[in-house]
Amino acid sequence: MISLVKAAVGGLTVICRTHGHQQDHFLSRILIFCPLSFLKDVVLPEKPKLKFLNKVPNLKQAKKERKKLRDIQGPAMASNTFTCGQYAIVAMGGGYLHWGHIEMMRLTINRKIDPHTTFARWRISAPYKPITRKGLGQRMGGGKGAIDHYVTPVRSGRLIVELGGKVELGEIEHVLIQVAKKLPFPAKVMSRESLEEMHRKQKEMEENNQNPWTFKQIAQGNMMGIRKVLSPFDLRNHGRFTGKFHFPGRV
Question: Its GO biological process terms (predicted)?
Fold first, then answer.
């Protein structure tokens, strides 16, 4: 709606300049009939742009860690719902975000959004998980390598960046799609309504399932001794996740 109003105002501005009329009269007439009542409750923060996230955490002594792939497996238990924005980039799979990905998102979004009408907020933490690496040409052994860089683990269903303000999805969707395509895991641009619709469809699919043999029933009944080859991860998520990959169509 706002984009259509801006286009109409721009066209009338050109007509006014061509015929030498006053612009205020036409703009006031248009704004009377604009249905912008849904934007009255929107409050822009003092700093609307994405803040800079540190490349290295501020630690007294850096400690090495194991891989711990469980950090990117399964569904996200935190930051999986909206807080103050209307649109967001949602991860549809697990993966690690490097500092370069975070800087790419920050620079792209801060350059493309209008700070007078739009704000953006991080829903992820700065890189904190250490990744070690050995130099080229080194022989095997010798212990664990030195810390090379830090990453941020992300699980499926987590919100990466949240945007809001006096703006519609059509005005910033192309920017968010451009950012989502460059992430190291599948991501999707969603609004509050589309996220709720996705959860509603998943719940409806589980309630109206006509197949009597679901993964949960087969695993709990231990049919043909299947519990021997299933991990606690499979029993907890009922086969909807395989590592960092998510199967949205599986009940």
Answer: mitochondrial translation
